[in-house]
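To assess whether ligand presence alters the predicted conformation, the chain was also submitted together with magnesium ion. Input:
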Amino acid sequence: MRPLNIAVLGATGSIGRQTLDVIDRNPERFKLFGLTEGVRSANRKVEYTISGQSGVGDFDARVEAMVTDARCDLVVVAIPGARALGPTLAALRAGKEVALATKEVLVMAGALVMKAAGARGIRPVDSEHSAIWQCLWGEELENVRRLVITSSGGPFWAHPDMDLDQVTVEQALNHPRWSMGPKVTVDSATLMNKGLEAIEAHHLYRMPLGRISVCIHPQSVVHSLVEFVDGSFKAQLGRPDMRLPIAVALAYPDRLPDAVPQTSIKELSGLEFYDLDERRFPSVGLARRAAAEGGGNPAVLNAANEEAVNAFLAGEIAFSRIVPIVEEALGAFPGGGESLEEILEADRWARGWIRENFGTVRRA
Ligand code: MG
């Protein structure tokens, strides 16, 4: 069998670089077909190299040509933000396999995207969704009682007496387990990332939001769990290393030998689990409500959160204001948002609303 031709959207980001690493180490299985790069150059000789620095219209047209090219088999989507939406839909409509790392795609437009994916579905790259996916292999969805997404708790969960009004940017960026960009790290501290992940899981596995819960698991060894109707749990364990979910997504339904260094059984010991305190961390409940409202509400949640996190990082609002500001934006949202255009409009509306109401907030 010839190697799988893979296009990587966002080849110079963290997920993109690790994806190239997995491809390079398995040349008999995978071939890098094309890529988009950001500020840095990926420096590869491939069929398509598309610079993110080119004009938006030109970028979009070239990316669409790459992901719909008859020779392309699989598209890894790892460019941040709403910009990933168009290429993802184009790839799915052209019948390509999609491995998805960009949260916004399912959070903003989950219904549209899953409709385009059809029975083929989407291969998740996020560690939690990869864990749930692996637990669901060979299972019937009707036998699932609930999905349980694990969270390390971020830097503040273990300090229940800490005044979240006084949190500094440095404290919020000091994540105990994973090393990530500033926006995602702040989302891990507010636990909004778990709210966004609950919305993603809802779409990926067509699971009602009431059957998706979040628990705190400080060791980050269990990447998520599935509970079945008979009372049984399945969990996926491993050391926190994104090359594993990437390898699972690229090789499905196979497994790649030595995708990550072998883990000793002792590294898997001492596992703790706690319920999420939704009063102290209201972000997950808020995300659930936004997704239940549907339409443009999840897009508003996502955009308002991004703007509020930027304001916190710029020192303009307190850490504890991030989630309440998102809630205020959702309360003010006039509604609408079934088509892609309307969803993008809801995104713009949320950013404009925050600009108007929090005038000192610096634009990203
Ligand atoms: Mg995750």
